[in-house]
Structures are given as C-alpha cells and as structure tokens.
Amino acid sequence: MRANVLGVGVSAISMTEAVKYSDTLLQRKSAGGYICVTGVHGVMEAQTDKQFRSILNSSFLTTPDGMPTVWVGHWQGMKNMTRVYGPDFMLEMCKLSLVRGYRHFLYGGKDGVAEDLRDKLTLQFPGLQIVGTYTPPFRPLTADEETDLEKQLRELKPDIFWCGLSTPKQERFMSQ
C-alpha cells in the first residue's frame, strides 16, 4: 500500500516492514528491484519531472524518509506508517546481513567516501561482507566504465547494491 504524496506513491511502511520486505525481495534471488529512500526533496523533484515520478512509482519500495511524507500517509488513514530514514535503514539491513550472509557493494560519493563507509560498517558489524566499492565520476558513466562496473558486479556478486549519488541522479541510475 502506498500513500499518494502529490502523485508519488510512498510506501506506507515502518522500518520493520521495510527490512522484512527487502529481505523477502533478496530471498527471491532471481527477482530484481530497487528501493528509493524519498523525502520532500524527491517528491518535489517529481512534480516537474514526469519520468522521475514514474521511476519513484515503479520502485519495489519508496520509503518515507521524512516526517512530512509520514504525516500525509497518516492523513490518508495509514496510521502504522513511520519514518524509514535512509542511514538507519542501511544499518538495519547490515544487521540482517550478518544473519543472512548478504553481500554489499557501495557505489557513489567522492574519492575515499565509500571506502571510509565500508571501514566504519565493518567495524560496527564484524563479519559484514562489503565486497566492493566504486566511486563514479561526477558525470554519466562512459560505455567502458559501465562495462567495467558490470564486470565487477558479475565477479563480486553482491546481493545489495547501495547507490549514493543524490536525488534524482541515484534513482535514475537504479532504474536504468
């Protein structure tokens, strides 16, 4: 179920449900999907960009990252909807990964940021498998760079691909 926030379907979920649904998606090894963590900024971007709105509405989940999206859900009768803050969602998925053995790949940020995040997460969650990182250039990838990334992903076989490029660039990349 999704709350309609100015034409963007925001998943009417809690953190517990976001983790549970994500786990279900990951258990279906052949199924693909992407999750958008969206607050007011994403909703506002979607007001003037129909393609971006479609990307959000086609996601497996579009989590309510900010309280205004939660409030709209509550006004629409979805009283169990709570904030699913992106960094907290990542931590919860890392906890689950220790049990399930999920493998992570970190994509985005400036040089060194993904590696710093990897180091902090593996310190906080000993045994967490972060199998790779990639810092893309601040522009669309070239065909050769896309091929290189795809090769890395085939070899490393991550279960979870974390994409941190900022909105709306990261959502476009994920849907592609």
Mean pLDDT: 94
Oligomer: single chain
- Rg from Cα: 16 Å
Instruction: Provide the helix percentage.
Output: 40-55%
What overall geometry do the principal axes of the alpha carbons give? globular
In whole angstroms, the N-to-C terminal distance is 24 Å
Q: Give the number of DSSP strands.
A: 7
How many distinct folded domains?
1
Number of discrete helical segments? 8
Structural class call reads alpha/beta
**SSE string, helices as H and strands as E:** EEHEHHEHHEHEHEH
Biggest sheet details? 3 strands, parallel
The residue ranges in which pLDDT falls below 50 over 5 or more consecutive positions are: none
As a percent range, the share of strand residues is 15-25%
- Main sheet: which strands, in order across? 6-5-7
Brief synopsis:
By secondary structure, the chain is α/β, with parallel strands linked by helices. It has eight helices and seven strands; from the N terminus they run ββαβααβααβαβαβα. The longest helix has 15 residues, at 86-100.
Explain how this protein is built.
49% of the residues lie in helices and 19% in strands. The protein is an alpha/beta fold and 176 residues long. The chain has one domain. The protein has a three-stranded parallel beta sheet, with helices on both faces. Strands 1-2 form a two-stranded antiparallel ribbon. α6 links the parallel β5 and β6 (129-134). α1 (15-27) packs across α5 (86-100) and α2 packs across α3. The longest helix has 15 residues, at 86-100. The chain is globular. The relative contact order is 0.16. The mean pLDDT is 94.
